[in-house]
Amino acid sequence: MRDIKTFTRDIIKKPPAIFPWVALFHFVMLVYQLWLYSDMPFPSLSWLQPAWLLAYSIAWLFACDMRKWAALLYLGLTMLNLSLYLGFLNMAKQDLYSSPIYLIDVLFSFFILFFYKRFE
Q1: How far apart are CA 52 and CA 60, in angstroms?
Q2: pTM tops 0.85, yes or no
Q3: Counting beta carbons within 10 angstroms of the beta carbon of residue 26, is it exposed (0 to 12), middle (13 to 18) or buried (19 or more)?
Q4: Is 87 strand, coil or helix?
Q5: I need a labelling partner for 101 at 20 to 30 A (CA). Which of 21, 34, 57, 68 fits?
Q6: Cβ(30)–Cβ(57) under 8 Å?
């Protein structure tokens, strides 16, 4: 088991240069969503947006450690998100149940697919 210092060094040094920047983007968006929904009652459907971003952020953090399971998790989250978005015909349900940055997540999935052979 690695300590936190080694893990932090690995997620910065191991992946291609774009990966830590994308991780920072995910965490900034997560903090923004938490701030945005902070006045909503916690166990409500409006908290699905920050939950999506939390799942994406955790998956991308471990993808920065070049783990194949994290890359597959990120791709799976993206496919689930797109299927939910395209499955709902009502625009209000699309906005409620899917990630707020689903198109950007598709772009980041292409980064993962491009560098997939480097993952362990």
Answers
A1: 12
A2: yes
A3: buried
A4: helix
A5: 68
A6: yes
User: Where does the chain have alpha helices with state H?
Assistant: 4-13, 18-36, 48-63, 68-87, 91-97, 102-114
Residue with tokens 């060094």: 9
Query: 82 near 91, Cβ under 8 Å?
Result: no
Comparing CA positions, the residue from 96, 85, 2 lying closest to residue 40 is: 96
CA angle 29, 99, 42 (to 5 degrees): 75
Task: Collapse the DSSP code of 46 into the 3-class scheme (helix H, G, I; strand E, B; otherwise coil) and give the result.
Answer: helix
Tokens of 34: 């938490």
pLDDT digit string, tens, across residues 100-114: 888 999 999 999 999
Torsion angles phi and psi, residue 41, rounded to 5? -65, 140
